Amino acid sequence: MSMDELKRRLGQVSDLYAAAGLMSWDQETLMPEEAARVRGLQMATLEGLAHELFTGARTAELLEAAGEPQDEADAALLRVSRRDHAKATRLPTEFVEEAARARNEAHHAWLDARQRSDFATFAPHLEKMMDLARRQADLLGYDEHPYDALLDEYEPGMRASQVEPVFADLRDRTLPLLRRIVAAGDAADYSVLTRPFAPEAQKAFAWRVAGEAFGLKPEFARQDESAHPFQTNFSRSDLRITTRVEDYWPACLFGTWHETGHAMYERGISERWERTPVSRGASLGVHESQSRMFENLLARSRPFWERYFPHLAEAAPEVAAGLDAETLYRAVNRVSPSLIRVEADEVTYNFHVMLRFELELALLEGRLKVHELPEAWNARMQEYLGLTPPNDALGVLQDIHWSSGLIGYFPTYTLGNLLSVQLLEAAKRDPAVAAGIERAEYGPLLAWLVENVHQHGRSLTPTQIAERATGRPLTADPYVAYLQEKYAGIYGLRAED
Amino acid sequence: MSMDELKRRLGQVSDLYAAAGLMSWDQETLMPEEAARVRGLQMATLEGLAHELFTGARTAELLEAAGEPQDEADAALLRVSRRDHAKATRLPTEFVEEAARARNEAHHAWLDARQRSDFATFAPHLEKMMDLARRQADLLGYDEHPYDALLDEYEPGMRASQVEPVFADLRDRTLPLLRRIVAAGDAADYSVLTRPFAPEAQKAFAWRVAGEAFGLKPEFARQDESAHPFQTNFSRSDLRITTRVEDYWPACLFGTWHETGHAMYERGISERWERTPVSRGASLGVHESQSRMFENLLARSRPFWERYFPHLAEAAPEVAAGLDAETLYRAVNRVSPSLIRVEADEVTYNFHVMLRFELELALLEGRLKVHELPEAWNARMQEYLGLTPPNDALGVLQDIHWSSGLIGYFPTYTLGNLLSVQLLEAAKRDPAVAAGIERAEYGPLLAWLVENVHQHGRSLTPTQIAERATGRPLTADPYVAYLQEKYAGIYGLRAED
User: Fold this and answer.
1) pLDDT at residue A295 tops 50
2) Residue range A205-222: mean pLDDT, rounded
3) Which residues contact B357 (CB under 8 A, 6 or more apart)?
4) N- or C-end of chain A: fewer Cβ atoms within 10 A?
5) How far apart are CA A226 and CA B430, in angstroms?
6) Cβ-nearest to B22 among A12, A16, A23
């Protein structure tokens, strides 16, 4: 019976987090602005009670008493719950509170520093973040490198020593490609991407395609607007994605389809883990593999626009005037080195990530001092992308992550990119999947993803998912080949160039 | 320090209820339909944890240990919390669970019985509801009458023996008025009230006036659509009202302003009781006095339409065509006996309530048997309103209340109506308030309501609020005088008639 009690308790914890999640979603989308102060207190209560309930002595007893699981599902539940419990109880309350306070201060200092492009005022807070990261790694424990303890929060089981060679390979093989693309020059007229497109029509088109192409239906999902697009959910039948509208209208479309990838992952997790800690994506990297697959590998493909260009032309004739599927396909696949990560294309994006990974590793080890960071950032931007930020706001201060104590988070973006192509290549070995993709009909692909990725939730590690689904560990090969083939076509590069 | 710990704990309880409230609001307004099952489990967890935290042994100790309060605010907080705690702990868990199950079954049986207009299948469930109501009254305790223990849930301190003479007086003095109005016949062309009025325009007009006339602003409130209009809130700076659109367009307008009255009450509660059990309206009756004041005494007044008719004409020219303020004023004040309570006008509404009060009192005492109820209902409908329901769906089965175990709830509607006029009369003794009302400028009135009603939350009882604000206990006099004067004018009745 203790297994039943454990499940009841895990269900309560899950419900508390779901409530905190709804409060957060509401805050970002609909909440009247004056409600913010009390909402903060309410969310803190819910998260505090959830943490208390999960780390409490009774939970420890129940995890202990559960003994040998009856079936595979229970085994996974116990494994994941014991792992989470062990990690959650390794950080003393005083440390968690100190870190929360320091992050709050660092976040405000960063907002101010970015506003004034003044790294110096942020520097002491970044020192503090690095100090906390080192202490957190020591508290959590690690075998090889303190970075592993941090990375493990986002990418369970992954180590810096595994990331480094993959990233080095990716860098060495895509840098020449990037240089050739830059040398080739524009491949389309990009001004069409800022033609006037009514905000409501943008959202409606993006949402309609999210349903028709990718299976995200109003029966179990909704779309709203927020300052920064995100996906959240309160069960697999209650998925929420948000979008925003900009002058550059592909932001709304591809942003929506990116979040749709996240949402469909959560949708596909087996119901047997409902209201348990297993019922989430396996890692940030695996999550990102789904969002980037939908956004880039599918929605930035030629078959996609062959199918959906007529729909776009119907939804927004003035945007589509004089265009065709091929022109649009080329326009939305522009490669152009730029300063800002979140605006980067498929080829340059990973350089932004690798740069950050290299720098945060050096900072954590103490090889690089915080005061040397802006210079190191700018040198590497020059090396990778041939650009030097005119100021730190457009350089080292652009991301929220470090100010929020998120050290070890950045690599997951590129791990997701790599995995997206490796998974898609594996899926295409099934002829029905491959044929569907050529017609932009993704039903067979979705079924393959549910079977091989989604349904497992956190019951498999990211490495297990990659190896079982694709037959080999994560590698840069498929991604590099994908980029080479796609962009050689768009930019007219010779194959052997 | 135990007072601090108590406040922390009450804050947590309040936050859990706020989260459950947001989940419920979301469910009624926006939630994808397939999310319902898990949402039910999540809400049950939040309410269960809130109840556990509030009734737990530590709360009892803290309420005990708090000793003598330091100030008036703490005194009120202790008084209300001790009262709630005592009541909450008087019902054993087994009773609460049995009642929840029975209500759930009764509710489904009622839905089905109403659908088929078949009272007999609902009858055993109503027997059970009455049985539970009697046992609940015994568990809660009472001095005079078991009904008092039930009524006290909604109208703290009120007794059946106080309600009865007030209702009898109201009945005896408004029945002759109603008969004279019916004899006088139509006072306007009511077909204008179903002219086509675009749903978005209805909602926008209603919401704009809610802000301009009644002070409900987007900075701390929002309006959404739901099947049944309601008001809820998660703090005084996070008010949510809902509306619905029907062919009869006044439903959206007056419904919105009704909920605005509820919302502005919660808005006016003093911040010092934030996140405590004091921070709610004093009772359902006092709440209803505010919603009915806005909906009827203000928005169905001549000065209101003199001011807002031009705005309506601007918002919906095709609706206003050929009309003027006076015509519209008469049309929205139609008096006409009808079968359905929620559609009733100001004069007939209270008869629907009094009938239910008299019948539920007789059922509780056992003077009336459940199987005799439809006949008793129909006889009284004939006596009061001159109508006989063609079937039980349009008669005794029309309301959700009894099937949900809400016995002792109905009188609060009429108590609210009576109090609304008694309060408004008192407020008008202030010349600035009176002058404002004549121009449909409600700033001075709102300030008076905050001062005399809103700010106190539950720190005063409904009786204290009525007596302090108006100088006398609740009586039917002002309400009767209001109806006589208003409808004599509209229906051209002679004053001494």
Assistant:
1) yes
2) 98
3) B163, B167, B410, B411, B414
4) N
5) 46
6) A23
If one counts the domains in chain A, the total is 2
Whether residues B85 and B122 fall in one domain: no
A53 and A137 assigned to the same domain: no
Whether B75 and B101 map to the same domain: the answer is no
Calculate the CA A142 to chain-centre distance.
24
Does residue B320 contact residue B313 with C-beta atoms inside 8 Å? yes
Q: Which of B95, B237, B282 is nearest to A42 (CA)?
A: B237
The stretch A38-54 carries a mean pLDDT of: 94
- Give yes or no: residues A70 and A122 share one domain: no
Total length of chain B? 497
Does B85 share its domain with B136?
no
Q: Cα dist. A427→A170, A419, A422, B496 in Å?
A: 22, 12, 9, 88
Out of B89, B115, B148, a domain closes at B89
Per the listing, tokens 């008669």 go with B395
Question: Which residues of A are less than 8 Å from B42 in CB distance?
Answer: 15, 18-19, 234-235
What is the predicted pLDDT for the residue at A70?
87
In terms of CA atoms, which chain B residue is nearest residue A237?
B35
B383 catalytic? Reply is no
In chain B, residues with a C-beta closer than 8 Å to the C-beta of A26 are 22, 26
Same structural domain, A21 and A169: no
Helix (H) or strand (E) holding B81: helix B72-90
Considering only CB atoms, which chain B residues are within 8 Å of A39?
A: 234-235, 238
Give the CATH number of the domain where residue B345 resides.
Answer: 1.10.1370.30
The alpha-carbon gap from B271 to the nearest alpha carbon of chain A, in Å, equals: 11
ipTM reported for the complex, 2 dp = 0.93
For B300, half-sphere exposure in the C-beta direction (CA atoms, 13 angstrom radius) is 25
Contact B32 A238 (CB under 8 A): yes
A408: left (phi over 0), alpha (psi -120 to 50) or beta: left
**CB–CB contact A45 B16 (8 Å):** yes
Same domain, A41 and A116: no
φ, ψ for residue A235, nearest 5 deg:
-175, 170
Which of residues B67, B89, B111 is at a domain's end?
B89
CA–CA distances in Å: residue B168 to residues B145, B380, B386:
18, 14, 18
pLDDT of residue B1: 66
CB A3 within 8 A of CB A66: yes
Average pLDDT over residues A426-441: 98
Q: Which domain holds residue A377?
A: 91-497
- Name the pLDDT band for A495 (thresholds 50, 70, 90): low
The chain A residues in contact with chain B (CB within 8 A) are 11-12, 15-16, 18-20, 22-23, 26, 30-35, 37-39, 41-42, 45-46, 49, 218-222, 234-235, 237-239, 274-275
Rg (CA), chain B: 23
The order of strands in the sheet holding B231-235 is: B221-225, B238-243, B231-235
Picking from A7, A8, A17, A22 by the largest number of B CB atoms within 10 A of its own CB, the best residue to mutate is: A22
Both tokens assigned to B135 = 């046992």
Residues of chain B where predicted confidence (pLDDT) is lower than 70:
1, 495-497
Question: Is there a single domain that holds both residue B410 and residue B398?
Answer: yes
Q: Is the pLDDT of residue A1 over 80?
A: no
- Check residue A405 and report its DSSP letter: T
pLDDT > 60? residue A496: no
